[in-house]
Backbone:
């Protein structure tokens, strides 16, 4: 139905721009698009006009008619459509399919709905530029996105989510809340975290570290560059070089910015002789790696060139593997719960055709992954043969407040690096053995995780993360002393507080604090100063009952302790 | 006297190696050295032989005789000494001074003691290689180091300190305690911090962050690379390029590893309009920068290529400057005290001839620095004209447990970057003003600070920093349950504990825990398990009285809280 809607949109565009050249017009998740080569640039004002035409076409209840032509016939039919001619040339068969409705005919395999009337509820959502075939050396076309649903209610719900997603766009919120910035002087995909984001990051990183320590992890710190030798041993220069940056020359030797932390952890392992008594080792690092991404695909915090991964490497004996994987999964879900994410999907990717490691290793590893998923009573999908050549993996997709899914956590076996670095431990039998190794990223990357958090909370961070937790707003200058007294008491309890001491109107101050999404605003005047109380307003606009200051201090301290 | 001792050493060497060629032989702090070109490599066994000869020369009470020669006469005298001939050529005068004692004559300005007998107590300490003129393109000579004092007692004290410094060498301790490692595969001057050091670093960094937050600082996180444009604006490509690494090419543009964090903080400042109401800003970052150092000068943690600076930039109005500087100094000394450093020296470096900024700015800034030193009643030395071209500064030299001084903290005005980045704020008058800016490093760099800490504590970190704070040692296997019970209770109180559950002899376990410099060892047997008590041994070997477990838990919790 969405694909049919794209044909209807194309017919509408053709009726407005008879000279239009057509690219492709597929259906996509929740919608569709079509790429056009038009005599002028579209503006948002064009969309209602196109929508009206589409309405007329739908109302006319035109049938979608399928035909098969020879290539030669098709070439004649699309003689004035250069993009279609290109597509025709690439079809291996001699026969090509077309679909026709009303005045529009398209090269198309289908299928389609029977008539245009079956398109129940639709909406054109936005216009974007798109290179023909996604290649910047080809012409830039104009892409119109639309969406269609079985009824108006579903469409409205979908549009509401899109609207909310726009309001929560992390780039927009990042600017409004002064969280991060980028600069042409620094270069694309490189982020400066401003003080408020720096505060949140410091809180989360410390939480992350303490949770890791409490769960038996240790933390390493490793350099950001390493000699070519290292990346040859690890295989990155063979298999990953297109994601790495050009080398730095130091005294005639090539150093590379690290695209991954792993090789440094392997060397840390090899810095000492290891015995089975030392295992399992659980080594984590918040290491910033640098990976090449084309500037065209960079997107806010979601796709950057500097990526702070919350890596861990678990190095263990074969016997320890089951328990270790189980712990990693449990630990990951625990952390996601703390950040308010309750829903996730689990994907298991298994043995591909081309791989290293023995059959035994693969089946042990896959059994361990499957068993752990089962023990945790999680539903999952299997991507048969979808593992990397070096091992099977579990991926977690996390669902956010808007129901969108984000691929974040990966738990991945690696049979490759232990071989390449010749990692061994002495077993209870006195002989050398090769350990198993699992890579894990939990939050994924700090950059992307922070972007997700921002959108998930819509910038209204829970109290324990809010850069400013309380704004004290004196009604008049004479209440400033009382406000300062509260400030001192908050600070002594580790509560992040600001006093708005400007000579502005109270309502303006409240509005500004609300825009900053500060959880609590305390408005203090004569009454509050007299009986040591506070009048508390939440950022939602809700007014809490007037209460003694000490009682509010307990409330907010509990919020912080409970991470809400 | 030390310079005279170097001549005596040279005479002794000459008597053993008549064909010796002589480089230079100055006095240095606490000692002297002489560089020789000899027919064979010296070994430590040679030193007593040379010392004995020196003893004979000293006993012979030979006078030091000064003469002046023409250059021509000197050239004849030193005809067989190529290094001396080089030095003679460089003397601008026609007259050159020589000193003669016994069989040895040296090109030398003096002064010297009267006779060799005035050299009271001496010792040759070690042998090292040293390039002629410190340049690796010239021949490698053999350098003998020695030391001399007015009496045997002073000499013995000095030698004891040298011995202790060797025992505390951070490279030796780093290996013994498994704290850090380096690797030829990564490259020189790049450090991997292993789990125990990672733990200490995480503790110190969190302490550093909390102290900064509590003292009104905010924390930024910035990338490790930036476009050439940024380093042109900042002036680094003009004035600092020899310390920077070769560029990385990304899509045809040059990016450089950052040698400093400052330019990123300047851009953070410029990401918003700033008003006088926003100032002062105190922005700190634990940013890892990369600076070129010749591989020959790299030294353990003390001189590395990756340097994690604890930078801060204080941006303020001229009126705020005095208070800000005062706070920076107070804060710095506070932090040093926490780490157990009580003694320091203060150096003030002032207006050099070549500089930027107005006379007013320089005198304001210098007055502020001087005033703050005076207010804190600190003694200081002035290095007249020793400031950088962009501003005056205060340096703190910290004295460690062995009485050695370390240049760590710098508080430095910068009139340059605010100009180059055109930083402004809107004053109360509604006009644009240029802010003052102060750079500060407090600990200096994490690498060097950690090296200093290691040597200062001799690896026996105070309880709050010790990676493992308590080792529980069950006397026999049947006491393991009790040991595990203690472990659980310690962990629930956040105490870092390990149980030595190996089937080894108790004395071996105690010895190993002592070698690991773990603050407390709890040996638990029948008696302890029966009455819930512990028998506590300190790493010093001292035995604490037997006590209830709860009482020890209070003791160690207090240690941690009080940072001892």
Residues:
């Amino acid at each position: 139905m969405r694909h049919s809607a794209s044909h209807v949109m194309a017919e509408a565009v053709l009726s407005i721009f008879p000279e239009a050249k057509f690219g492709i017009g597929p259906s996509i998740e929740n919608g569709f698009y079509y790429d056009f080569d038009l005599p002028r640039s579209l503006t948002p004002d064009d969309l209602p006009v196109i929508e009206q035409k589409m309405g007329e076409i739908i109302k006319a209840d035109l049938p979608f008619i399928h035909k098969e032509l020879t290539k030669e016939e098709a070439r004649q039919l699309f003689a004035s459509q250069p993009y279609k001619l290109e597509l025709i040339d690439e079809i291996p068969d001699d026969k090509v399919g077309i679909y026709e409705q009303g005045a529009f005919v398209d090269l198309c395999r289908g299928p389609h709905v029977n008539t245009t009337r079956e398109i129940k509820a639709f909406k054109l959502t936005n216009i974007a530029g798109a290179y023909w075939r996604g290649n910047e050396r080809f012409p830039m076309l104009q892409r119109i996105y639309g969406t269609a649903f079985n009824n108006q209610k579903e469409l409205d719900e979908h549009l509401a989510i899109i609207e909310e997603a726009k309001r929560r766009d992390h780039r927009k919120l990042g600017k409004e809340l002064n969280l991060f910035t980028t600069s042409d002087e620094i270069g694309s995909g490189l982020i400066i975290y401003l003080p408020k984001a720096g505060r949140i990051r410091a809180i989360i990183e410390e939480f992350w570290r303490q949770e890791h320590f409490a769960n038996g992890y240790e933390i390493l710190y490793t350099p950001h560059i390493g000699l070519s030798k290292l990346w040859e041993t690890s295989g990155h220069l063979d298999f990953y070089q297109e994601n790495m940056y050009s080398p730095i020359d130091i005294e005639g030797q090539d150093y590379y910015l690290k695209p991954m932390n792993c090789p440094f952890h392997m060397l840390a392992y090899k810095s000492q002789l290891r015995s089975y008594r030392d295992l399992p080792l659980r080594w984590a690092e918040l290491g910033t790696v640098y990976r090449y991404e084309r500037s065209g695909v960079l997107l806010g915090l979601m796709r950057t060139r500097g990526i702070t991964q919350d890596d861990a490497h678990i190095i263990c004996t074969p016997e320890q593997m089951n328990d270790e994987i189980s712990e990693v999964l449990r630990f990951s879900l625990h952390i996601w719960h703390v950040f308010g994410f309750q829903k996730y999907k689990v994907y298991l990717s298994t043995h591909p055709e081309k791989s290293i490691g023995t059959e035994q290793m693969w089946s042990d590893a896959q059994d361990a992954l499957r068993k752990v998923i089962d023990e945790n009573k999680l539903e999952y999908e299997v991507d048969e043969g979808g593992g990397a050549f070096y091992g099977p993996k579990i991926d977690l997709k996390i669902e956010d407040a808007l129901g969108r899914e984000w691929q974040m956590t990966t738990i991945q076996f690696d049979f490759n690096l232990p071989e390449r670095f010749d990692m061994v431990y002495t077993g209870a039998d006195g002989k050398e053995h090769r350990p198993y190794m699992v890579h894990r990223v939990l939050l994924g990357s700090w950059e992307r995780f922070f972007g997700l958090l921002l959108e998930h909370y819509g910038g209204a961070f829970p109290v324990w993360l809010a850069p400013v937790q309380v704004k004290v707003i004196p009604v008049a200058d004479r209440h400033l002393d009382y406000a300062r007294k509260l400030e001192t008491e908050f600070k002594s309890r580790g509560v992040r507080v600001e006093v708005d001491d400007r000579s502005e109107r109270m309502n303006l101050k409240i509005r500004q604090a609300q825009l900053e999404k500060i959880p609590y605003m305390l408005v203090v005047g004569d009454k509050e100063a007299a009986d040591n109380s506070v009048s508390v307003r939440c950022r939602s606009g809700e007014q809490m009952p007037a209460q003694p200051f000490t009682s509010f201090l307990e409330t907010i301290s509990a919020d912080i302790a409970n991470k809400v």
Q: What stands out?
A: The first helix of chain A runs from residue 2 to 16. Chain A touches chain B through 59 residues (CB under 8 Å). The mean pLDDT of chain A is 95.
